[in-house]
Design brief:
alpha+beta; five-stranded antiparallel β-sheet; 10 strands; 257 residues
Length: 257
């Protein structure tokens, strides 16, 4: 997977998640400040405002209506103030004439809110939750794409083995050219070096078997083995060592005696 694509997914969707989370948090903080420091009074629902939205083109347009309560209350300075509730619903949440608790800033009465969870807190909480979910999904997708890039050779070969059993891979014949001792962190381990000619190729290539924790025996050099090739990824292949295992295990048993 292209690294640029992974980072683009993380930056775009992760950025949206972070922006939503921060925006919702700021909105929630402002509501908390109003709730803590605002003046409390009682208001009356004078009407329910209809907000009409249309989706789709002219031939397949759907219309939805949301109702927002309009509340009137008297501020501390004696001025009557009308304001719209911040959350709408498909059916009116409040009947006209209903009395509701109101919180407002005495210095800015038009910032009043109905003291009700759906009106006071639902908006900020929903935005924060959407932000967290979006950021989490972006992170999971990024990690998943990175994991796909780092698929272990053993897993890739196991997948290829499954394809081979179901006739979904190419197969060629190869010859063991060398039993190679590994170095560095792999000291004490061995691999079989096999040469084979890919379909349509003009020169033999080198293929390495899975590692052995012991020397499988130099007398394997010259033996023929089957190599399964992934038709879509030239870097994925599997050397079928199953026919060699009886001789390898017998040799190991003899060495231990």
């Amino acid at each position: 997977m292209d690294d640029a694509m992974k980072w683009m997914v993380l930056l775009i969707f992760g950025g949206i998640g972070v922006a939503a989370f921060l925006g919702g948090s700021v909105w929630a903080y402002k509501r908390y400040t109003l709730y803590s420091n605002g003046a409390h009074t009682e208001g009356v629902v004078v009407k329910n405002f209809e907000s009409v939205t249309s989706d789709g083109d002219s031939s397949q347009r759907s219309t939805s209506i949301s109702y927002y309560p309009v509340v009137e209350f008297t501020a501390q300075n004696g001025v009557k103030v009308n304001f719209h509730g911040s959350t709408g619903s498909s059916v009116p949440d409040f009947e006209v004439g209903a009395r509701v608790a109101v919180i407002y800033d005495p210095h800015n009465p038009s910032s009043a809110q109905i003291d009700d969870f759906s009106q006071m807190w639902l908006g900020p909480v929903a935005i924060v939750v959407v932000g967290v979910i979006t950021l989490a999904l972006a992170t999971v997708v990024f990690i998943g794409m990175s994991a796909a890039d780092n698929t272990s050779p053993q897993l890739a070969r196991a997948m290829l083995s499954f394809k081979a059993e179901h006739g979904q891979s190419a197969r060629i014949e190869g010859m063991i050219r060398e039993v190679r001792a590994l170095e560095g962190k792999e000291t004490g381990k061995y691999v079989l070096v096999v040469t084979g000619l890919r379909p349509g190729g003009d020169s033999h290539e080198e293929f390495l078997s899975e590692t052995f924790a012991f020397d499988p025996g130099r007398d394997l050099v010259g033996r023929s083995v089957t190599i399964f090739l992934d038709p879509y990824d030239p870097d994925i292949y599997q050397i079928d060592i199953a026919p060699l295992l009886p001789d390898i295990m017998a040799r190991q048993s003899a060495r231990r005696r």
